[in-house]
């Protein structure tokens, strides 16, 4: 007789970025999150003046934080998402369109 396999209960993983957000700190700058600001709904990384786009060799872009210095490998911390909550160093981006 064989023993049936009992699957482990499903649970979502907690990656390092999510763990920083759970602690209330921004994963790139490691400073506190700005918090929900109903008067400024664009207070997310995608609406910040400090965002930079890293161009990959295949033409894709990655959103990075411009407040971080480039490391020895030319990186600026983790890839961010437009919708990621902003940190307290948030500065509203001008409404000018970005060059594509």
UniProtKB/TrEMBL annotation:
Protein name stated in the entry: Uncharacterized protein
